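Structural prep section.
Before we set up the soaks we want a predicted structure of the protein with SN-glycerol-1-phosphate in place, mainly to decide which crystallisation condition to try first. Input record follows.
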Amino acid sequence: MIYQKIILAKKEQQKLLAILIDPDKISLAQIQSLADKIKQSPATHIFIGGSIVAENVMDDFILELKSHTALPILIFPGHPSQISHHADGLLFLSLLSGRNPEYLIEHHINSVEILNNSNLEIIPTGYILIDGGKETAVQRVSQTIPIERDNLDLVYKTAKAGEYLGKKLIYLEAGSGADKSIPTEMIRKISQNTSIPLIVGGGIRSKEAIENAFKAGADLVVIGTAFENDVNFFNK
Ligand code: 1GP
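Run finished without errors. Recording the C-alpha cells verbatim:
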C-alpha cells in the first residue's frame, strides 16, 4: 500500500521525494534514459500528469516507464482523461483553495466509472494552491485564485478543513515553474497543526530548497521543472 508506506515514513521521519513527469514534454523514446537518471536520484515516487496532457498518451507512457522503474507511479491528474489503469495510484486531488466546482467535485464524479474498473490506489488529497509569484498553468487551467503567500491563517484553516473532510494528504502547491516556492513558515505552520502527511511542490530548484522544505516539516517534496531542465540535477 503506497499510502501506508507514506504514513510509516512520516512516523519514522524519513523524507520522501517525488519526481514529477509531464508526458507532454517527454517522448516515449526518452523514457528509458530518464528512468536511468531517476534511478540514480534519491526519488522515492514518480508523479505523472500535468494541467494539460494530450489525450491517450498516459497508458503507453506509464507502461514504458514501468518497464524501467520499480518506484511507485502515482497519477497527478489535471483532468480525468489522464487517469490510467497502469499506474499504481492516484492522487485524487480536490482543489480546496479554489472555488471552482469542477475541481472540487465535478471531475471526480466524471472519474468514477474509470476508477471502478481499475485497481488504482486512490488517495484523497487536499490540494492547496499558493501564489508562486507568477501565474502558473494550474491557476490558468483551474481558473482559481491562489491564496496569498502571507495568508497563513487561511492556508491553515483550508488544510485543517481538508483534514476534517477526510483527506489523507495535504499538498501545498506553488504551481509548476513558480518563481517562488512555498514559504517555509507556511510549511511549518501546516505540518505542526495537521496530522496527515504534507506534500510540498512548485518552484523548488535547489537541493538547499528541498532540505529547507524538509526541515520545515514537508514529508514529501515534488520536483518537476528542475529535473526536467537538468536530469543531472541530483548528481551535482
Ligand atoms: C507541480 O509541484 C509540482 O505541481 C512541481 O513544480 O515543476 O516547479 O518543480 P516544479
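Observations: The chain has a mean pLDDT of 97.
Flagged for discussion at group meeting.
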